[in-house]
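Sample entry (192 residues):
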Amino acid sequence: MKMRRIITLVSCIFIIGIAVGYLCVEWMYEPWIPMTQDIIATQTRTTYDFRDTDAYTNLAEEDKMRLVAIHHDFILLWGALDKYAYDHNGLLPDSLEGLVPDYLHNLPKDPFVDQSNLSAGENEGKQSTKEVLSYRYRPGSHGNRAWIISSVGLPDFPYQSANGHGLYIIRGIWESGMNPLWKKPKTLYTKR
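Predicted structure, serialized as tokens:
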């Protein structure tokens, strides 16, 4: 009889401990759950689309077609660069020509490149005519999957954001035109 009471008492304490533990956890997180759900419900996530802007509406039809072609080329180049980096341990090619023929059949041409915007300075450092006619490409730090691809056309067009300038796409973190491989995090507090 005594043994039965001890087992019952231990079982009750165990069950009470689980219940108290559950209530403590529930109490700790319960106040945050409705609050975060309210915040999420009230925030409407909007994505920027350059086709919804007045600047796009005011473009000539030829420029609209060029802009859509650039948008598709940027997506194509993004995928090719990611695949290249995946196959080469995170390294990127020195130029976009490094993607041909393994990742692209040929380089897409920037539809805005013509004789009027091909200056002598624009051609410096280019190895071939294909590279001159293609998009501008700048890889990030060595071993960092970061890059910038840009077009010479519409330098004031808000492609990436409402206050963005020009046709470009960026991968990675860039600060003042630099892509650091590693950045020391800011210290929020110091030990005493």
